[in-house]
Amino acid sequence: MSQFKPTVRSRGRRAPKRVNYDRETIYGVLDSSFMCHVGYVLDDQPFVTPTSYWREGDTLFWHGSAASRMIKRMAEGLPACLTVSHFDGLVLARSGFHHSFNYRSVMAFGRARAINDKAAKEAALEIFVERVMPGRTAEIRPANAKELKATTVVAMEIEEASAKIRSGPPIDDAPDYDLEVWAGTVPVKLVAEAPVPDPDLKAGIELPDYIAQWTGMEKN
Amino acid sequence: MSQFKPTVRSRGRRAPKRVNYDRETIYGVLDSSFMCHVGYVLDDQPFVTPTSYWREGDTLFWHGSAASRMIKRMAEGLPACLTVSHFDGLVLARSGFHHSFNYRSVMAFGRARAINDKAAKEAALEIFVERVMPGRTAEIRPANAKELKATTVVAMEIEEASAKIRSGPPIDDAPDYDLEVWAGTVPVKLVAEAPVPDPDLKAGIELPDYIAQWTGMEKN
After folding, report:
1. Rounded CA gap, A58 and A136, in Å?
2. How many independent structural domains does chain B possess?
3. Predicted pLDDT at A218
4. DSSP-assigned letter for residue B22
5. Which of A89, A194, B5, B187 has the highest CB neighbour number within 10 Å of its CB?
6. Nearest to B164 by CA among B79, B100, B92, B219
7. Is there a domain that residue B41 lies in?
8. What is the Cα–Cα distance from A11 to B68, expressed in whole angstroms?
9. Where does the pLDDT of residue B79 fall: very low under 50, low under 70, confident under 90, or very high at 90 and above?
10. Please, which pLDDT band fits residue B219 given cuts at 50, 70 and 90?
11. How does pLDDT run across B3-55, given as a tens digit for each residue?
12. A15-46 tens-digit pLDDT
């Protein structure tokens, strides 16, 4: 299976059984979330900014106002760490020590760069909209020149990445299985609810099928 | 209302209407999530680690293996940025440009330190369990000396913090309200599902009320 190469930077040192470098696993975690957390350093100070993102192959993308401090500095080629995580529930063990969460996470490392070509930027933003809500692009007003200029799209080739996943029941110390304590997991899911029309929605516009299909489904 | 002081580090420069520094708002976002993303710098490289956390007053806590690279270096007093974010749904506007997410997030800055006092560490870990699942501490086996030694609890006084929140319908350009495009939001929620007993659960142990109460509720 295709793998990212473990390095000093990406290697998971704790709980190695939970860590892997398979592209398929890493893509799976990256492609089933909407918000990531981007880490970067400005003047020795770490910042972690939550933002939307999308992926194509081994490249991660995010975007923002061309005037944003984070986006401007990112586009200069700053080292970045983009982390995605899903909280999948509580793991209730018989001891406090073995309590845990079930989760799926990916840490990806690379250097950010701006996409300056207008056509490439436009294409990237359309891919983003389709990634979040398939079918939406065909319906909406496309970006105009002013909007494209006001938006910076940042791309980061993944140099290294690792996934860390915990699932399943608690693992207790052998003697603790005799304790009179309920143990197990409480799964937690992200779910989409019924769409809420804009109060200013023009009369007579029905909810499109592609939005109806999106809702009511699990989102992680 | 009590506020964190805006600084160069914490000031939200984009979309200032979405940013605030009220303790009440910041506490609200911090106290309704389970996983945060901690950013720190090792050898000029940013890292963003998803982890569980809890809060007391203006202090944030997280924990990990005493042998973990992140935890060891954190405890030395590294500058850190702890970010919490809730993804609340899609904002579907009439133009691609005004598409957005609804979200609530907090960025908190400070310096981490280890809690070395055994009693303080023990107390902190009990507070953590109670924060995640009220009622659990009374039932489980408490930490023993070996487990306490293997666990580092990290505390960070919040020096600066800001909340950024977007809610409500899309805001479109005036002429776009005439387009024949459905617009609105699709709310997304984190929900807890029915508990799954450990396959090795001792016969005759019923699900406690405090766990039953926790499930079936919204979690963000």
Report:
1. 25
2. 1
3. 62
4. B
5. A89
6. B100
7. yes
8. 12
9. very high
10. low
11. 888 777 777 656 667 889 999 999 999 999 999 999 999 989 999 999 999 99
12. 667 889 999 999 999 999 999 999 999 989 99
In the block, tokens 């081994």 appear at: A58
Query: What is the CB neighbour count within 10 angstroms for residue A168?
Result: 11
Q: Are B57 and A7 in contact (CB under 8 A)?
A: no
Query: Residue B187: its pLDDT value, please?
Result: 96
Alpha-carbon gap, residue A82 to A60, rounded angstroms:
9
Gap from B123 CA to chain A (nearest CA, Å): 12
Which residues on neighbouring strands pair with residue A78, listed in sequence order?
Answer: none
Measured CA to CA, the distance from residue B208 to residue B213 in angstroms comes to: 9
Residue B113 counted as domain residue: yes
DSSP string of chain A, one letter each residue: --BPPP-TTT---SSGGGEE-BHHHHHHHHTT-SEEEEEEEETTEEEEEEEE-EEETTEEEEEEETT-HHHHHHTTT-EEEEEEEEEEEEEE-SBSTT-EEEEEEEEEEEEEEEE--HHHHHHHHHHHHHHHSTT-TTTSBPP-HHHHHHEEEEEEE-SEEEEEEE-SS----GGGGGSS---EEEEEEEEE---EE-TTPPTTPPPPHHHHHHTTSB--
Q: What pLDDT, on the 0 to 100 scale, is given for residue A75?
A: 84
With contacts defined as CB-CB under 8 Å, which chain A residues touch B108?
none
Whether A3 is in a domain gets the answer no
Task: Give the number of other CB atoms < 10 A from CB of residue B27.
Answer: 17
Task: Calculate how close chain A gets to B79, using CA atoms only, in Å.
Answer: 7
CB within 8 Å: B188 and A188 = no
Residue B118 located in a structural domain: yes
Nearest CB to B198 within list A80, A169, A190: A169
Measured between CA atoms, how close is A161 to chain B, in angstroms?
Answer: 12
Contacts of A3 (CB under 8 A, 6+ apart): A21, A22, A23
From B64, B83, B84, select the one nearest B74 (Cα to Cα): B64
What ipTM does this complex have? 0.93
A118-152: pLDDT as tens digits: 999 999 999 999 999 999 999 999 999 999 999 99
Look at the alpha carbons of B139, B140, B141, B145 in this order and tell me if their dihedral is positive or negative: negative
Q: Which residue of B has its CA nearest to A164?
A: B50
CATH number at residue A154: 2.30.110.10
In angstroms, the CA B171 to CA B97 distance is 10
Domain range for A145:
16-87+102-168
Q: How far apart are CA A117 and CA A107, in angstroms?
A: 28
